[in-house]
## 1
Amino acid sequence: MKVSLYIAVGGFALLAGCQTFDQHELPEANAQPVAIEQSAPPFYLAAEPESAEITDIWERIRQGMQLPVPDQKLVNQYRDWYIKNPKHLEIISERATPYMYLIVEELEKRHLPIEIALLPIIESAFDPSATSPNAASGLWQMTQPTAKYFGLEMNRWYDGRRDVPASTIAALDLLEYLYEKTNNNWLYALAAYNTGESRVLNAIKRNEKKGLDTDFWSLDLPKETERYVPRLLALAEVIKNADEYGISLAPIDNSPSIEVVDISNQIDLSMAASLANMTTRELQELNPSYKHKATSPLGPHTLVLPIDKSEEFKKALAETENDIRVNWLRYTIKPGDSIGKIAQQHHTSVAAIRTANGMKNNTIVAGKHLVIPVSANDKQLYAQSTAQSLPKKVKSTASSKLTHQVQPGDTLWEIAQRYKVSVKQLQAWNRLDSHAKLTLGQKLAVLAPQTPASPPAGLTVSYKVKSGDTLARIAGKFNVSVAELLEWNSLKSSQLIQPGQILKLVVDDSKLNA
């Protein structure tokens, strides 16, 4: 992943990432390392540094450092640059705050050099959304083929390279692989992370044939790689002696700051943010892996949340019905449509549409309908024709969305038979996996087969009640009647609504008030 990623920081530009996996072949399981005479020890940590009394993660990193920093020209040049530009590390240390503890924990668990925690400073300036001109992406700047090989998912909804917890696992797996293939030498492995193991191994072989030294400093490598390893070593030296060099690093608590929360199925990001008492932007900054305004319908079903918000979110999520986490769009197939075109138009995948509609292949028929999962607050939906939206009245008719409450003895198969749908459709509509167990009283969404007569159409949205809201005020805002609000939410006219309560509305976008 050859990267020329320049980031302006405090009025100056700095090369912020430099990995080259576009020219790096995928790892081969049977690749044999060359025989290399070690000129330096392999640098595995012998033991974890004691951290019981350490309160700042930077001190934990300093105490764990083991890679020798040689007196080399490039190392000294980069060290001097960092010292002369202290603002750079001050800003980046703030960006690292949510993630550094997680990275250090994973490194120590694997007994890897703690200096690897500093690689994202070089690769992406600790920006999970960073993308290079050659399509490397994420905190660790991985290309799609390499990321896929090491287990990261990537689809129309989700890019695992931008998922910090997931990409950290993949990047460290890659580094361990490179360490093994380069005869357990960390300088070789780091160089290979930048340029690929074949280039490093071939450079070693060339020196062997010429009778030259085979240590990293003697190898003929691409200029970028020759500078990559010295930059990391210089960075480690500066951070180890930050006080001496006048570098102010943002303190990072030596404790978890984020948590990966299992959400079980797809959810609109603005609703998730509301449940966590966060702004949508705050949530998106921690979850840049999601490309749209909802999590992926096909998974992974996880969210990264601040540790102090996670319990509140999990409790609120448990009280939120699956059928209001995202909305369903009823799409009328037009002549000339293909399932791929429809998937692209609605920012989803062919597989998601097929799963939601119980389709065995990609065959569609003009005039028929498809059910498509969409984000509850996606403004693009308001551009859709109301004729292609869900039925306006949510009634128990043959052409509407139904809610089935699980009764004693119910099974998915029996419920599917009752409503003349398939078990796979029930699982897709309710985000249930094949091992999911039904619970008494659980509510399941059922999209019953359509009848020839088509009722008035509208777009189903979710609304979180705010302080001071009344049913009349909400009805006026969305240009619906109070009676409809009561009907859609199974409320009585005497029933009070509470701030934080989620209401379902079926709105006509052409009649919305400004």
## 2
Amino acid sequence: MPHLDFTQPPFDVLRLTERQSLKKNTQVRYLGANESLSSDDLHNFFVVLKGQVDQTLAGEFVASYFGSNHSDQLNSNDWFDSRRTPESQGRITKSQNDGNTEPYQYTAHEDTLLLQIDGAAIDKISAQNHLVRQLLSDKLPERLKALQQRRSTQGQALGLHADSYTAQQEVQQIMLQPVTDVILLPVHIIDADSSLHQAARIMTEAGLKHVLVRPTSHLLEQVRGTLSDIEKNSKPEPEHSITRRSDRELGILTDTDICRAVSEQQDPATTTCQHFASFNLRTIDADNEIGDALMTMTRYRIHRLPVIDNKGQVVGVLGQSDVLAYLGHHSQLISIQIEQAKDLNSLDTAVELIGRYIRAQHQNGVKIGIVSRMVQTLNAQVFTKLWKLIVPDEVVANTCVIVMGSEGRGEQIMRTDQDNALIIRDGFTHPELAQFADIFNNHLADLGYPLCDGNIMMNNPMWRQPLKPFKAQISLWFKNTDPMHSIYLSAILDGEYVCGDESLLKDIREHLKTAHRQSDRMFVRQFVRAALQFGDVNQWWQKFVPLLSGKPSSHDIDLKKAGIFPLVHGIRTLALENDILEVPSTKGRLKGLVQAGALNQERADTLSEALEFFMAQRLSVALSTDDKYARHIDPTTLSALERDLLKECLAVVKSFKTQLRQHYQLEAS
């Protein structure tokens, strides 16, 4: 008798007693070709061992579930929970208009062998095991969260391929780097007999929370005497840890010390630093490792370490918060390298680190939305640094560089086509602006950000204009007299600030509201059609069948057309209709739509999670292949859990498109 495979989800998270319970409540079920599950069967959970089961709703195809006999490429057998209802999964159906929700129908496409598990047994286990509850939830966001947790756990527990760069390897490598790799706080030394007021002024001007204090001759003898006593009564320090005695003669005064003095009603103008400074400082050599610094800070419960070079001079102060930021977020290192870049070569090194950061974060299970927003921040720093390396300060002050498309929305993971523009202050001119724009776009291409095939870049005069002509152009786009106008308008709606005068972009956003209000009332209905032009989920999923027959996978699912674009553009249209133009991100637009009452919170969460699932799958393709655009996915390479979630996310897209058609009163194409 066939048995459940407890190495596959959702059964791989079961305890021994839970596995035994399921075995007792499992039986083999046979369905002949064209035979359907009865209504009495729809309280069970099924695993397809052999054959194929088609899921339909009111006669319309929804999905197919396959057994292992269909393809040796499948990682595991498909499964389905027949208790799920269209209503619980947020599907909009024709019957809902009449107030009646029909159940799904399950029909064997051919002779099919199933494992049937009693739903009550599944419910009992779900009540005790939150992992099973999440994996089998009828709420898509819950199951996507479970998948994310599995990826995180697998990345940490199982390890990754030898040629990959894991977060753990990253931390280990960083711990072995010299402390000077971390950005050091500047050195400001004040005499011990200086007043607290002088110290506070130096700290304020330097933007620091401390100053180093040089002891007076009398105090220096006391410090040296104390150090001698310490050396006599303590065990020798590790050779790598604490530096020579003469290097510990400086003291430190912090903002906390000054607050303590004020609380004791001391006069800052007359009270000297030596009364509140701490001496006998722990220090560390510049060639010591970051791991040594962290160990010293932890052992002695200190937050700052003066760093001493081989000549005995203080070269900077290592702050604990900077060390932790360096260790916890590799992005901190990248940001520093971008800021310190002096030329294109050094900037290229930082850009390569962004790619490494993306891989490490994704493989460590970090949520894709968090990764994409951090990448947006780092890319913006790259663009800013490059622009400032190219143009004089007056150009920076009188222009505004913006990015658009997925980069503007903060949903860009891979380095795909550039989408950028330059807004110029009215009345400002510079004879080399066109040349600057051309250099900027070509240098970005050299850094690995490909030129835009549609030429939506600042080297195109249409995307490099003074504010007033830019506004006039936007007004023209709202007239929608050219098929390209909707594409151009979509780009500018996604515009996000990079550097320069941000008020120029704010003026553009205000004009977008004005131009929209002045446009034809039917404009939005035409604008949304782009989200509806690609095939529906059933058309895409039915292409999965020939893949399992061993035919060439020329019909892989296009994640952008089938999933990402309809969601992004549909939400963009709803945001435009509701004057939500101050935020270009899809997540920000969804939040605004909930606040405006255009969507409920559950619907917004489902759309957001579906979009992030498509983005994560696309990134997985990019990291595992040489596909530049990473748009197509082969369903046979996915686990049963991932295939199930892919079906559900595609169903969310279909439901959303139906919602858009109903809202804008458009007939189905």
## 3
Amino acid sequence: MTENTGPAQAAAGSVPDWEQRFRAPRVSLPDWAEDAPDRALFVSNATGTYELYAWDRATGAQRQVTDRPNGTTDGVLTPDGEAIWWFSDTDGDEFGVWMRQPFGGGADEPATPGLEASYSGGLALGRDGTSVVGRSTDEDGSTIYVVPAGGGVAPVEIYRHRESAGVGDLSHDGTLIAIEHTEHGDAMHSALRVVRTDGTAVAELDDTKGGEVELGLEVLGFAPVDGDTRLLVGHQRRGRWEPMVWDVATGEQRELGIELPGDVSAEWYPDGSALLIAHSFEARSELRRYDLATRQLVEVDTPAGTVSGATARPDGSVEYLWSSAALPSVVRSTSGDVVLDPPGTKAPASVPVEDAWVEGPGGRIHALVQKPADGSGPFPTVFEIHGGPTWHDSDAFASGPAAWVDHGFAVVRVNYRGSTGYGRDWTDALKHRVGLIELEDIDAVREWAVSSGLADPEKLVLAGGSWGGYLTLLGLGTQPDAWAVGLAAVPVADYVTAYHDEMEALKAMDRTLLGGTPEEVPERFEASSPLTYVDAVRAPVYISAGVNDPRCPIQQVENYVDRLAERGATHEVYRYDAGHGSLVVEERIKQVRLELDFAQRHLG
């Protein structure tokens, strides 16, 4: 089903480069089998749809693993590299089952017979063929099953709770399972539990208790050594994310005290002697190696920009996916090689990003600015608002902002309160005044953009997808004089209906953010819902929505659109047959073309 209530012609003055950025072949960072490191799995858009590919690095042979109309991106290699597991949903609805296919090719078969379709709650695969499968449904809440090797034995439920939970990892010898859970009711701050494969408890770590400030924990992985009971854990005890090593057998917690200014994550080197450190600070990232015996921290040489994924190989080299706002992504190695270079025309470069720091009501706000290389301001300006909200924009290549720059627009991306990468307090600032807090920061940056001469105050576009789409609709209603056009993709539009229709894990997040359900705190849902302010909207509104979206479901979008229509407000709606965004390249291009056309027509 595809419907567009507005014109679908190409945007006037289209520049070929912007479409080529979407069509250019891309690959993800290859994952590799722990016991067969020459066998790898990656995602590519080589066919025009993002699908999984198998790669035998010893022979160089590559083959397409999945081929579905709306694409596939969720896949895992078994430790021995003999099979690929991939998640099969229906047209992007994220509700499905795990399938299994031989690495060399062959028929797909259900990987977990006996388990009905669900939302995925994590997956861990053991060396003996045992699998640990996390599930989430409206009826059961969160459940975790152990599926014995060999088939013929029914899956065994080892965990069940109404609040959100998921599989963290399975120990190298397959005897211990790490679980992230939110039984305390705070979906933003997980606690950890380690259990045996029969579900009996081994250890518990919970930083949400015993203080006024609740802190989160995350599973980063068991040590890759048989019999090793060390678990690498992310914690927030010093106001930001950083790693520690927790021995779940002895209870010892070794905080590493890595003195870097931003958020720090880590993964094990394959022999368990060191950690690959990923450091994110002020929208850039870099890598280091931390030796656990000597505590020595050594820089891993990477270009300035953003490392969006990295892995340490058995030979000690590090492979990583790198890009900057100006230069497209590439999979590099510290050996000096480009690891995976897909054939075809490369994506054209864009312009570099500039930093802006603006004083806001909650502290200094970091914004990233791109502007046309030719000409001087003030420019028509798009405020491209990121989703999440627990995410952040970075100095990384993005085809959408580059398209706007090609068409003469400046682009401003704001890491508002709620964004990650600026400390725990910044991320946790959203509670109860959800949406309104982020818009205070966006408005402060808007005022700076106008007063600095960057932005034309008569040609300001508020745009975003997912949470960014939500903030777009909320901003158009609460700041009606500030924006000339609004472009909202897969947004939350009617918060109460969205809560009742969305997937269970997001219900838990909304209860955390707003302090309860719509029935328990109706005034907070009303204050944070775009539908509350729809009658104040003056700017023309463009909305795109996936009809199978489980995160921002279609009915709550329709409720908002109906209200716009009732009052004769200028709006256009595009509905497409997918979920929370599309994995089809031409569909992505079409949506950007429609947004460009809508903005250009209404800005004159």
## 4
Amino acid sequence: MKHLFFFISFGAMSAPLQAEMPDSSAAQQEQQRRLFIQVEHQISSASPSQVERWLTELQDYPLQPYLKQRWLQRRISQHDDIARFLEQHQGSPLDWPLRRPWLMSLAKGQQAARFLEHFPGSNDPELNCIAIQQQLKLRPATIAEIWQQTESLWMVGKSQPKACDPLFSQWRNAGQLTTEAVLRRLQLSAEGGDAGLIRYLKTLLPAQQQYLADLWLQVRQNPAAIAKPRFLPGKHVIERDILAYGLKRLVWRAPDQALQTWQRYASDPYFTAAQRLDVQRQFAIALAHKGDERASAWMDQLPPEQLDNTLAQWQVGHALRELNWPRVQQVIERFPVELAADINWRYWLARALEEQGQQAAAEPIFRELAQRRHFYGFMAAAKLGLPPSLAHNPVTVSAEDLTLVQQHPAVARAKEWLALGRMTEARREWNFLQRAVTEPQKLAVAKLAGQLEWHERAIFTLADAGYWDDVELRFPLAFKEEIQRFAKSAKVDSGWAMAIARRESSFMPDANSPVGARGLMQIMPDTANYIAKKKVPLSQLYNPVTNIDFGTDYLNYLMRRNDGNLIMATAAYNAGYSRVRQWIPRDRALPVDVWVETIPYRETREYVKAVMAYYQIYNIRLNEPKDVFQPLLAMQIGRAGK
């Protein structure tokens, strides 16, 4: 099978795209591509007459508007031409790169009316500040609303762009800045915002309240400061916000110190019920996360309305870590009906019943879950000796919707960017397409992406449409030959390797994570260097073949380091070998499903569940007879296991 990304990586066009046109048309389009690339590099320095000739010559080429956009960026004073262009391409990737500089030019040129006519609103604080300034020039009658908008822009926990300074000065000079507003922004800055902003906000407070900024800054830098005797002088109610903030941070670093400090303030009349509840919730979660036996008592203090998915996870997880099955059952049976219906808690209710000898009550739940395509659905099927269910239900789209989507200009532009190997631009067009079509037509967009073998877009578009049951589109056999070849060489299961690639990148060879993992299987550069025993150029990690080679070798390494334990090797691929070793219980052995559910990091916990479920799906799709989940039933992790 040929795959779109494989050919893009090597500068060629994929087979599905080539097949859409006869040889003569293909040759003409290839000539247009070469001219487009030439013009793209020369248009900034070309004469108007030359540009007009190019635009005319390429008028039928899908990417011609990008050349016109670039030309208009040079002629920012051509207001009517720009307005027409933006109207034609509103909301597309062609819009904002031209609209923003034009709006900035209009503001600079004192053209407030035109600016507001063509400003659609944005998430750009600089432009929003400028827009409000333009409103002030034209609409003084709505001054109260304008000042409200200004306060919303000001009330963030970080510094805003310098372009906002004139607006904020007008707002302050109009007497709109209050001490209460400064105190609210001070709290936003301390609680995860820009700590450097605290020093500036201190200057805006009355002299007798400036000490509050100092307290916020001290607790931000060191939450243990709240444990000092007489740290809070008791002069202002805001001190209790500082106290709550410090307690919630301190319990993660030093639980005993946090609990001792809590006792000093437990009866403080100025510590509000809402603040106490907020702190109690954080204490319960932090103690459960650390496996502290005091967690249950804190959990039990919380009222039912505090219960959500996060708290439910730690309530059940804490009881599971203790293998306290009656407690697991009790906790889940207290959940609201909607929460208790979640597949995770249905499974653990059945497990609790099973462990207490109530097999007759557990089996119907397991049988129900065994119909689900999920980690716990596959676990339930394995327990009952049933075959895993894929619950496959292919997408169906009307011929009309598919035709309408195929004719959308964004499709032609995306295909051209793909043919040029320009993935970022292609994705921008596809994202615009998803926003531009109706909800039913999103399924046609996903179907079209699948036909193009653009696997990531098919996967993401189905997710955007909320359609989860087309297994073939969501779990494509992408890079099948390459993965099978290198998996066999590395002595790892190809279904597992494919599941890792699906979870890591959705088969995006050019994927690049915030921490620096690269390519199809998200290989860290240091990992590649270790495996290759030499310095590997970063560009090689974007080559799918090289990436799969390194990825499967790394899977082999993790299996060996974890004594062949598939679950721990999978967790280590996400969290690292050393961290996973820290999660192995030293005082007991846990069933593997319990160990997975009690992994402290939510990301890794969900990662392991997803990869193992994907592994089962790919085994079925690859016609492998092995049931991935059967061996897990007897697996233990901890003192008595590996």
